[in-house]
Amino acid sequence: xxxxxxxxxxxxxxxxxxxxxxxxxxxxxxxxxxxxxxxxxxxxxxxxxxxxxxxxxxxxxxxxxxxxxxxxxxxxxxxxxxxxxxxxxxxxxxxxxxxxxxxxxxxxxxxxxxxxxxxxxxxxxxxxxxxxxxxxxxxxxxxxxxxxxxxxxxxxxxxxxxxxxxxxxxxxxxxxxxxxxxxxxxxxxxxxxxxxxxxxxxxxxxxxxxxxxxxxxxxxxxxxxxxxxxxxxxxxxxxxxxxxxxxxxxxxxxxxxxxxxxxxxxxxxxxxxxxxxxxxxxxxxxxxxxxxxxxxxxxxxxxxxxxxxxxxxxxxxxxxxxxxxxxxxxxxxxxxxxxxxxxxxxxxxxxxxxxxxxxxxxxxxxxxxxxxxxxxxxxxxxxxxxxxxxxxxxxxxxxxxxxxxxxxxxxxxxx
Length: 415
What we know:
There is one protein chain. With about 425 residues, this protein is an alpha+beta fold. The chain has a domain at about 320-410. It contains 14 helices and 14 strands. It has a four-stranded antiparallel beta sheet. A four-stranded antiparallel beta sheet has the order 8-9-7-12, sandwiched between helices. A two-stranded antiparallel ribbon has the order 4-5. The chain is flat and about 120 Å long. The N and C termini lie far apart (about 140 Å).
């Protein structure tokens, strides 16, 4: 019985020890988890503080940086749809509700590159096979002067020479006729004299631009027409649409255009040929700036990435900068020790060419050791005399003249 009791006591002790170990391990694990959570919270709080500081500092800088880095992107972004005028501004649509406007958009078609002298009846004849037409609005007619009312431009014959075409909106009675009207994209129309031909550009009002198969063309002349660009880029592939970005009031071009091809492969070929071959890279004496068109969202992301990189570099400079010392203090501190050593002889140090982390180490050593540092001694150069470069050039010229005269005399004697 005594032996059994001893064994039971031993078992109980072991169980008690194991329970203590398990409890202690659980406590340690929980404490570690709490420490990690606290550290993560502190890190997140620090990051949030740094981000808030960077945002406050970058508010004033973002305006200037966006103007410098994204002038071209802003032009593309703000002026992509200048040729298309919204339906809200058209006469008769201002009093409609949002639901009525949305319903009208499904029945409207945008037609571009129409000859200026083309009458509404001729436009109606082109699109009458698609379905019943309710209304036709003509827009973007170039004025000869700054006229307030658009009706006076046509009635008074005050049409300018900035462009030879106009745009129109056609409202059909049924939405099914829009698909048939879009099939007329690229339809050839002649002017009144039958001297020029115009390729119509037909799009639905709700259609979004396809940037994957389009090209951005910059540095164009301000007075330009769509047919001129078509003749230039026809050799590179089949053109679907051409859109020139113009000013709303004067209808003068802004030097920017978008050319849409049928496939993505033609876009890559066009960009390569415009960069490598001069006949495609130049247009009316101007060197074109050709690249792939990018959507507005991608442009905004690029600008945001550039700004984030600049903010990160500034934060890194603050964190990895000199230990409580500014750049001005560094230069003054170093010059003070250079003046003391001038009596011993002329010495030159390559402090400017050092990298930042190496320069910071050097400064810490000089502050601790009263101006002495091994890093700075290794970068030292000894200078004995100043070099007179002008005098050396003169001597070389004189030596050449003497050599030439000697050679001339030798050749005369031989002859």
